[in-house]
Amino acid sequence: MSAIDTENGALKWEYKLNVSDAGTGGYGYELSKALVNGNCVVFGYKEWPDNEGIIALNAHTGDMEWEFVYPGKILNLEPFLYKDLVYASRPRSIIALSVESGEEVWKTNNRGFENVIEITDGKLFVGFSNPSVLKPETGEILNEYSYSNVSFFKAVIGDKFIYCTNSSSIQFFDSGTGELV
Fold this sequence. Notes:
- By secondary structure, this protein is mainly beta.
- It has strands spanning about 1-5, 10-15, 30, 35, 40-45, 50-60, 65-70, 80, 85-90, 95-100, 105, 115-120, 125-130, 130-135, 140-145, 155, 160-165, 170-175.
- Helix content is about 0%, strand content about 50%.
- Strand 6 (about 50-60) and strand 7 form a beta hairpin.
């Protein structure tokens, strides 16, 4: 991971994962896109074959601020950053971590949520087995979408409507109530 000065192209800092000490047996790493909130750079990683986690770096120095590790194949590689929380997906749950410390702030343990799709207009959209909308600060369920054809993976999420497509239709949902329009 590198930080480059946009004005002159100079390298500001570089962060390297220590692959030789990681026990990967030569398999290596896969990294997510980097997310930045001004002072912090956050990215997910997968250490092949088994470990996954999230690392936060100081955006100004490249020093590691914290690391959140889940051994085993249970954390989605792509974290989401919204305000002062980092969200990550696990089978049947979503976790929210403090950007400042990396400590767990809240976790869902229900209904098969498996992937954070988007955070918009103060709403956390999660999908896979049971698409729902959560309150980003607490994980409280705001809306559940009980329609079998809802797929946030193929959706445009706006202020008033959610537009979902599947192989044969387009559906419109009220983003405030979750009702099919």
